[in-house]
Amino acid sequence: MSERKPYPSDLSDDRWALIEPVITAWKAAHPSVSGHQGGYAMRESVNAILYQGRTGCQWDFLPHDLPPRSAVYDYFAKWRDDGTDQTIHDLLRWHAREKRGRLADPSLVVLDTQSVHAAAGVPASTTGKDAGKRVPGRKRGLTVDMLGLVIAVVVLAASAHENAAGIALLDRVAAQTDTVRTALVDQGFKNAVVAHGATLGIDVEIVERNPAGKGFVPQPKRWVVEQTYGILALHRRLVRDYEHRPASSESRVYWAMSDVMARRLTSAFTSSWRSV
After folding, report:
1. 46-67 average pLDDT score
2. What string of DSSP letters covers 180-212?
3. What was the pLDDT predicted at 268?
4. Do 72 and 186 meet the contact criterion of CB atoms below 8 Å apart?
5. Residue 140: which H helix or E strand, with range?
6. Which of 33, 64, 117, 166 lies 20 to 30 Å from 25, alpha-carbon distance?
């Protein structure tokens, strides 16, 4: 088979080198029962996941010169379920933080949520309506550090209260690291989140808006999470929630941020989907 023409979302050799050891180790730990190594290179399967994330295409519309849906989805689902996607993401995050002269894990984080519309076909049992924002779909919660890098992600029905998202995010942060001491949240989060943070040794501070401010006014330190949401919007698959399972939606965030961090670590330019 002749070498295909690359897509803008393809991994460069330098970016593939950052995640290849994890993929290779995973493959070695999950050999085929028949001993068959598979008909498609693992790098091409990752390229297909990144292509779909950037373009937002349906599984059946993956280009014919990439591995087929059956192969790509199998890896996507297995890596989602066993946490390999998060392992890759976290290793890149630690590398990115250390490159900026930071410790591997942060002491200060920011929590926020974003309600996104759900596509037709997404199970109604996993969606709801955000009454405040009038958005029917799902609620995407993020915890980010001061560099805007994702520490934890949780996806719930949009009808879920901010407290539910905040408590779930704090639990995931505490499960991953014991270094976080302070979490900043907006006024949508209530005392239940503050109280839950205290049980985990995390001081949750509610940052109040300046009553004199009109429209959108970036808040000191908290603005980084808004920047992260903007970066994620470069990945069309995340502009709307297309996934049947909330866990798949969370996996999409990890893959998108892994792509962003791999590009930053190799000084590669990230183009907007509006320009490609």
Report:
1. 97
2. --EEEE-TTS-HHHHHHHHHTT-EEEE-PPPTT
3. 74
4. no
5. strand 135-144
6. 64
* 113 vs 185: CA distance, rounded Å: 10
* Cα(104)–Cα(158) distance, integer angstroms: 32
With residue 142 as reference, give the H or E element that holds it: strand 135-144
Mean pLDDT score, 45-58: 97
pLDDT at 187: 87
Integer angstrom CA distances of residue 81 from 76, 84, 250: 9, 8, 11
In angstroms, the CA 202 to CA 180 distance is 7
Which domains are delineated in the chain? 103-244 (3.30.420.10)
Give CA separation, 3 vs 6, 74, 248, in Å.
Answer: 9, 24, 31
DSSP 19-83: HHHHHHHHHHHS--TT----SS-HHHHHHHHHHHHHH---GGGS-TTS--HHHHHHHHHHHHHHT
